[in-house]
Write a structure and sequence with these properties.
Blueprint (H helix, E strand, L loop, with lengths): L1 E3 L33 E9 L12 E3 L7 E5 L5 E5 L8 E2 L4 E9 L7 E5 L17 E2 L3 H8 L2 E5 L9 E2 L1 E2 L2 E8 L13 E6 L2 E6 L7 E5 L2 E11 L4 E11 L3 E8 L1 E2 L9 E4 L2 E5 L4 E4 L2 E4 L23 H4 L3 E2 L2 H10 L3 E2 L7 E6 L3 E6 L3 E2 L20 E3 L1 H9 L3 E4 L3 E2 L5 E2 L4 E3 L11 E3 L2 E3 L2 E3 L3 E3 L8 E4 L5 E4 L3 E4 L4 E3 L2 E4 L8 E5 L5 E3 L5 E4 L3 E9 L6 E8 L9 E4 L2 E3 L6 E5 L7 E4 L34 E3 L34 H4 L1
Parallel strand pairs: 2-11, 9-15, 13-19, 26-29, 27-30, 41-48
Antiparallel strand pairs: 1-3, 2-7, 4-5, 4-8, 6-7, 8-10, 10-12, 13-16, 14-15, 14-17, 17-18, 18-20, 21-22, 22-39, 23-24, 25-39, 27-28, 28-31, 32-33, 34-36, 35-38, 36-37, 40-43, 42-46, 44-47, 45-46, 47-48, 49-50, 51-52, 51-53
Length: 672
């Protein structure tokens, strides 16, 4: 297709028209041919004038090389799909909004409706629209315009002739902006994968993280619950929407605040005790060299000691200090045997033994609420019981199941304290944090074709896989180390936040300033930098999407000022300096520098700062404005303005006349 550029906005890129393939009864004469033979027919197909293209601007137009698929019934009652000849330039009229397509049909039954699908690539061989093509997208508007901009028409033959048609778009287009949970920043540039679940339908966008809107073409929805799961290099983000309607022939610019999951956690929630749900890690715990990490993929494992551990060997992992833990034996029992699961594959299905990617055996555990996405290629096995890993799913299909919340633990086997490696690739053996009453053993649930047992025991020296979890509790409160602070321009101060509960799944916060022209704040660290005199509110917002916030009032005050405000005249408030004014002389006869005393209670009075000498006559301050020794002075009279100090002496009382003052030779006072 081509684009005839107009000055049209994409603000909503509204696609006006009917919501499904519609019937039209055009007026065309029928060509003459012998019934029951191959015929070549032509038809005129139009695009609505007000249908906008899926490009930043422009009207949808036909292009040289375009084809439509014609779906019809033949005289034997079979559905047949054929593609038209490719358009030539002479076929296109009306500035590209109309075209004559030529198609060859065999034994068409003219009593049955005929359907046109455009572009032809959006039609399957059986004549159905190729909606499966929507399952995998790249998030760009260009790809949607070229390959997925599906429009169709269904109508009756006109006296034996193919009907003239006006196509109607069949998809809803979402132009998506993903934001942090506080709405302060756009995170599209972090996202490499975005999955949108609408009921059982799923749409996966795989992309290189970049700035800019993410576009998804979806089938129309009506009152549908929608789940978005976005994946960055560090974490998953989720968003749940209820009762959403996105109509065909419409575009929807939407912005979603995404809840950030704990770094390294999968998006599914699993009940492991009454009232307690957890997230599981994205892979088994691994230790290599001095580094602790989670495996990059759920199915990864080493047939050696790098990801096998004896009882409590994992206690030194950095993940433990970050709130990760290992299930107890009772929690494993709840997860596998007793929790209630809503599962569209089978009611109550909690787990199944499966083979992933044709070779890796393991345990699939379904989240508490699981809607199995279409297009995974998953082949069901036995649920909630031992089996010979008969369920199967491809790596590509598993990616959808993982985004929908499933956990997979590979059959990595185990190593006994006295034996070699056992059952590698044939048994799932996992650690618990529960030791037996004797103290010699700990519980190590296992799953194999011969059976499963969440109460199995092993010597503490036995090595098993470790799959860690983190609680799903949301942040309920945030307290800051300060609720108000005063800073001078250019100064910095770092706020710290403490969240409750302490076991919150994602205890992170982000920081924002209400007035960056007065004070900025580092979004990650909470460090405030004062910019200019004024007030700002610094807000800490929980990253988990709970909406919990805490604030600190920041006042940027003049350099050297105290934080209090004082009324000194009607409508006039002032700040006072932090201490008395002082003139500092580095040496006899030198020009002074000015400063405020370090503390409000500091004073020098009639002495130099370095000794007890009294200021009398010319023994310290000379009448010409110089000093006879190094020192600091903080008592002043009125005198001639001078950059060198201009102080009077006891014999020169005439210098008190006029408006001159001792402190007038320097701009400390004038600035404040």
């Amino acid at each position: 297709m081509n684009q005839n550029i107009k000055s049209l906005s994409i603000a909503a890129f509204a696609l006006v028209g009917m919501l499904a393939c519609v019937k039209e009864i055009p007026q065309e004469t029928s060509p003459q041919e012998t019934p029951g033979v191959t015929v070549t027919l032509s038809t005129t197909v139009n695009l609505p004038e007000d249908t906008k293209a899926l490009t930043p601007e422009g009207v949808k137009t036909f292009a040289v090389g375009d084809q439509i698929a014609v779906v019809y019934k033949n005289t034997s009652g079979n559905t047949v799909k054929v593609d038209s000849e490719a358009l030539k330039s002479t076929d296109i009229t009306g500035g590209g909004t109309s075209a004559t397509f030529t198609v060859t049909l065999e034994n068409p039954d003219r009593t049955q409706d005929v359907t046109y699908i455009y572009p032809a690539a959006m039609a399957k061989d059986n004549g159905d629209p190729n909606l499966e093509a929507l399952a995998s997208q790249d998030g760009t508007l260009e790809t949607l315009a070229q390959n997925l901009d599906y429009a169709c028409f269904t109508g009756a033959w006109n006296a034996g002739a193919l009907p003239t048609a006006t196509l109607q778009n069949q998809l809803a287009i979402l132009a998506i902006t993903l934001k942090s949970s506080d709405g302060a920043s756009v995170i599209n540039n972090e996202i490499s994968r975005l999955t949108l679940f609408a009921g059982t339908q799923s749409y996966v966008v795989t992309r290189t993280p970049a700035e800019g809107t993410i576009y998804i073409a979806i089938q129309p929805t009506s009152g549908t619950n929608i789940q978005l799961v976005a994946q960055s290099a560090a974490r998953y983000y989720t968003k749940s929407l209820t009762d959403k309607t996105y109509a065909a022939n419409n575009g929807y610019p939407v912005a979603f605040r995404m809840a950030a999951l704990p770094e390294g956690a999968l998006p599914g929630k699993f009940t492991v005790a009454s009232g307690t749900q957890v997230y599981f890690a994205k892979g088994n715990l691994q230790h290599e060299g001095s580094n602790w990490q989670f495996a990059a993929n759920q199915w990864d494992y080493y047939p050696d000691s790098r990801d096998m551990f004896g009882y409590n060997d994992w206690s030194g992992a950095t993940q433990v200090s970050d709130g990760w833990d290992v299930l107890s034996q009772a929690e494993w029992n709840t997860l596998i045997n007793t929790r209630t699961v809503s599962n569209t594959l089978q009611t109550g299905a909690r787990f199944t033994l499966a083979t992933l990617g044709g070779s890796v055996k393991g345990l699939i555990v379904f989240p508490d609420h699981y809607v199995h996405p279409d297009g995974t290629g998953f082949t069901a096995g036995t649920y909630n019981a031992e089996s010979n890993f008969t369920a199967t799913v491809s790596i590509e299909g598993w990616a959808k199941m993982e985004m929908a919340g499933c956990m997979f633990i590979p059959a990595a086997g185990y190593k006994s304290y006295s034996k070699d490696w056992q059952y590698i690739g044939d048994a799932v053996c996992v650690s618990s944090k529960t030791e037996t009453t004797s103290g010699k053993y700990y519980y190590t649930p296992y799953f194999a074709s011969s059976g499963y047992n969440t109460s199995d025991q092993s010597y503490k020296e036995t090595w098993s896989s470790v799959r860690m979890y983190k609680g799903t509790a949301p942040v309920s409160g945030i307290s800051l180390n300060k609720t108000a602070t005063y800073i001078h321009p250019g100064g910095t101060e770092t706020l710290t936040a403490t969240v409750t509960p302490s076991a919150a799944a994602n205890p992170g916060v982000s920081w924002t300033s209400s007035n960056p022209t007065v004070a900025t704040v580092n979004a990650a660290t909470g460090e405030i930098t004062a910019v200019a005199k004024g007030s700002a509110t610094i807000t800490a917002t929980a990253l988990d999407g709970s909406g919990v916030t805490a604030t600190c009032a920041v006042t940027v005050i003049p350099e050297g000022a105290l934080p209090g405000k004082f009324t000194v005249a009607s409508g006039k408030q002032v700040y006072f300096s932090k201490g008395n004014l002082q003139a500092v002389f580095a040496s006899a006869g030198s020009t002074c520098t000015w400063q405020f005393a370090e503390h409000q209670w500091d004073y020098i009075g009639g002495r130099t700062s370095g000794g007890s000498e009294q200021i009398t006559g010319n023994n310290f301050i000379n009448g010409n404005g110089s000093v006879s020794a190094a020192g600091t002075v903080d008592i002043f009279g009125w005198s001639t303005v001078s950059t060198t100090f201009g102080i009077h002496n006891s014999q020169n009382n005439s210098t008190y006349s006029g408006s001159f003052r001792d402190w007038g030779g320097e701009c400390h006072y004038q600035r404040r």
